[in-house]
Write a structure and sequence with these properties.
This protein has 793 residues and is an alpha/beta fold. Helix content is 37%, strand content 16%.
Length: 793
């Protein structure tokens, strides 16, 4: 075993380790103490996580979400990760990113170790340069010849390349880690260092001492002297160090590490060779699953292949170390593959000894797709029958539902704010309203899927139809709203869509029983799997990346949830609104009797709703009038906190707290009041500070009202009506999956129609396009045909 410590440490401990190093060299870089390091966060754009890191080693982590608690981590860098595509030289950009991520984790108080390839590639680059330089000098001495001889580079022996490259590779790591005030140490090992008991104890002691002093050990096989690997040379219960994969596994187990990250040039482990048509990335791999995997060829460089990696990973897992195999050349999530893995994100293949009790979310997605297609083929009456049965179950099983909801409320007491507790709560009246809404959906579902929207005769015996069809698989993510589950499920059933539901853990008991009732209703026509409730520990961000399984994401919750999902969704459309900043403009010709009723209902009836009033715009002529005083008195009685807009504050000697932002969704008994000069001023304010959700005018002047209705560019615009009418049930849609403020496909409360798209059906008789050419025998007719009326009774 050879060990070398980089020269960027403090004199106190470096002199103990390397007494022969000159003080002048030591003074080049002052080592920052660990206590100081943990406050250095400004040099990296990688998120800094603060989590408890104390853990007793002995059993691997069961779930990805637990990886954030890993304290001791080994990162294995494969040859394909470290080297350039030409296999001659290092991929400096990737190495710099890896060093930054390792430094971030080290500075969080973790103990990081690197097992790295690259010495052979780095040495090959240096030796080729030397050979070319030498040949060019020799040719220059024979310049009298008519032409220079072609310079041929001989085949370079790997051990010689390793000997030439090891010092340069370590110097590069040293320079990179120094940028983050971190010291690194090189350790070269061979198989004998693990099989000789004394050498193994020496290695173990050296590594523990380095970790104790907050130094990152960089470990590699000593390729300059290592003998060729012997096949099947593993000892009983011990993995032989044949390559850096087996070295990393052996090191991880010897050092009792919590996590081994193996970086390669593939995304992880696939069920068949990557690149083949049916290859699927395996999210979680369990011992015993090897028989279901077909291994491809090994990577373009390096000694091991995926089979060697899996063998090493399983050996480490058996020794109590969690393992993730991922792509270190093209990270998929944020570009920071190592920190993404430690944060528990769905990157690569995670090796686990604990199989989940139910299906994986990928399997649930496939079941929802298959079940949804079967659902779409049912007769409209059959889909309506399922929804009617679900409505009956909501009232028949009322006691069981309320009991489950009571458990959720008891567990959430003290943890959730009052508005969220109100959303979480179910009651007999809520369940009755749900059942009524579901029966409305059942009635409207009779003429949804397969409805003909357009018929055109293209030519004789060539007819085209445009018909409604389901979107596919919907992912609905909702917070603290168990009543959302049967509503959304009924809409998905009516529209023939498969459905994945992800509810908040605060409503887990309620969601579970409501989902069971939904599946019971679906079972009457054999489509139980069309609606799936995701109960695994999947992060929302991971679900948003299932672009091959999900066709539309619908978030139901806080504005922060919607923004996070819109940001995380890659390649999947998101239907929804990030904010519900609803305005009410009180015109100079408003009715005194109407204003206070409308303001009270819009703000106070349910302030946590997305359609609650947030900004009240008052015409300036109404200031200091009885109408204005009545509004203020009513808000005071209802205990609404008032925030004054800039213009409103300028009219007052002693004003309420001035608003911090005119673009605020309070979601509580708080209201911004602002003064405007005219209806056009109100419209301009709404367009500047609103969220295109719901906006209202209160006036007795019809011309002013129509001007407001036509010019305000929001999903819902009302005249003399509460903002709270912006709701699928109140619109007669039965229910809604959400309110959309986007301008594509659906806008406003999204009911059954918003969950449908179209397809084109063309029926012909041996028609070909060439028959319609200039000299063809047929001509286009493009005649509109009558649309047949479907019997909806």
């Amino acid at each position: 075993m050879l060990s070398q410590v980089c020269r960027s440490g403090s004199q106190s401990f470096t002199q103990r380790l390397l007494p022969w190093v000159q003080p002048t060299i030591l003074s080049r870089s002052r080592r920052v103490q660990p206590s100081a390091i943990r406050h250095v966060r400004s040099w990296s754009n990688i998120p800094f996580i603060t989590v408890p890191l104390s853990r007793t080693h002995g059993k691997s982590f069961a779930h990805r979400s637990e990886l954030k608690h890993a304290k001791r981590i080994v990162v294995k860098l494969g040859s394909a990760v470290v080297t350039r595509g030409d296999e001659c030289g290092l991929a400096l950009g990737r190495l710099a990113s890896i060093v930054e991520q390792v430094s971030v984790l080290q500075n969080q108080g973790r103990e990081m170790m690197l097992v790295t390839s690259g010495a052979v590639a780095f040495g090959k680059q240096r030796l080729r340069h030397e050979i070319l330089l030498s040949q060019s000098v020799r040719q220059a001495l024979h310049s009298g010849q008519n032409h220079l001889k072609e310079m041929a580079i001989p085949v370079l022996e790997a051990r010689a390349c390793a000997a030439a490259g090891q010092s340069g590779l370590m110097a590069l790591y040293e320079a990179m880690f120094t940028q983050y005030s971190i010291c690194a140490a090189q350790i070269l090992v061979t198989n004998l260092d693990f099989h000789d008991e004394q050498k193994r104890r020496n290695l173990n002691g050296t590594l523990h001492e380095l970790l104790r002093m907050n130094i990152v050990p960089i470990v590699n096989t000593n390729d300059a002297v290592v003998p060729p690997a012997e096949p099947n040379s593993d000892l009983q219960g011990v993995i032989s160090v044949k390559d850096n994969d087996s070295l990393a596994a052996r090191l991880a187990v010897e050092m009792k590490t919590d996590l081994l990250i193996v970086l390669s040039d593939v995304e992880g482990l696939f069920d068949s060779p990557p690149g083949s048509d049916d290859a699927k990335l395996i999210d979680i791999f369990y011992p015993g699953d090897q028989q279901s995997v077909t291994f491809g060829t090994k990577s373009r460089v390096g000694m091991g292949g995926m089979e060697a990696k899996v063998k090493a990973a399983l050996w480490a897992l058996q020794g109590g170390t969690s393992v993730v195999i991922a792509n270190g050349t093209h990270p998929k999530v944020s570009g920071h593959v190592i920190t993404d893995i430690v944060e528990g994100k769905k990157v690569g293949t995670f090796f686990s000894e604990v199989k989940p009790a139910g299906p994986t979310v990928e399997q649930q997605g496939e079941m929802a797709r298959s079940g949804g297609r079967m659902l779409a083929t049912l007769e409209p009456e059959q889909r309506a029958e399922i929804i009617h049965h679900l409505a009956d179950l909501l009232t028949d099983q009322r006691d069981e539902i309320l009991l489950a909801n009571k458990k959720d409320l008891e567990e959430a007491e003290g943890r959730l704010a009052t508005p969220l507790l109100k959303r979480l709560s179910l009651s007999t009246s809520k369940l009755n309203s749900l059942a009524i809404g579901l029966r409305q959906i059942a009635a409207s579902s009779q003429d949804s899927v397969g409805r003909v929207l357009r018929r055109t005769r293209i030519a004789k015996d060539l007819e085209l139809e445009q018909v409604t069809v389901p979107i596919g698989v919907l992912l609905v993510i909702f917070e603290s709203r168990p009543d959302c589950l049967p509503q959304v499920a009924a809409l998905a059933i009516a529209s023939g869509n498969g459905l994945l539901l992800k509810g908040g853990k605060e409503a887990s008991h309620s969601n579970r029983i409501l989902h069971l009732l939904t599946q019971e209703a679906l079972s009457i026509h054999g489509v139980k799997e069309a609606v799936q409730l995701v109960n695994t520990r999947e992060e929302v961000e991971d679900l948003c990346r299932l672009d091959k399984m999900i066709d539309l994401i619908i978030p139901r919750g806080s504005s922060q949830l919607v923004r996070d999902i819109q940001k995380a969704a890659k390649g999947i459309p998101v239907m929804g609104h990030s904010e519900g900043i609803c305005h009410m403009y009180v015109d100079s010709e408003a009715s005194v009797d109407k204003v206070t009723r409308l303001v009270r209902d819009s703000k106070c009836e349910y302030p946590a709703a997305c359609n609650a009033l947030e900004t009240l715009l008052i015409h300036r002529d109404l200031l200091r009038t009885p109408l204005f005083d009545q509004i203020i008195d009513m808000l005071r009685v209802e205990q609404v906190k008032i925030h004054a807009g800039p213009k409103f504050a300028s009219y007052l000697t002693f004003s309420p707290s001035e608003v911090k932002s005119l673009r605020t969704e309070y979601g509580d008994l708080e209201l911004c009041i602002e003064v405007v000069d005219s209806v056009q001023d109100a419209i301009d304010h709404i367009h500047k500070y609103g969220s295109s959700h719901t906006d209202v005018i209160v006036t007795e002047n019809e011309k002013t009202a129509e001007f407001f209705l036509q010019h305000v560019d929001s999903a819902c615009v009302f005249w003399n009506a509460s903002t709270r009418f912006s709701d699928g049930y109140r619109f007669g849609l039965g229910a809604e999956v959400g309110i959309s403020t986007s301008r594509i496909h659906a806008r406003g409360p999204v009911g059954l129609e918003g969950l449908l798209t179209t397809k084109w059906l063309l029926r012909g008789q041996d028609h070909v396009v060439s028959d319609f050419s200039e000299h063809g025998s047929l001509k286009y007719l493009h005649e509109n045909l009558p649309i047949p009326q479907r019997n909806t009774n």
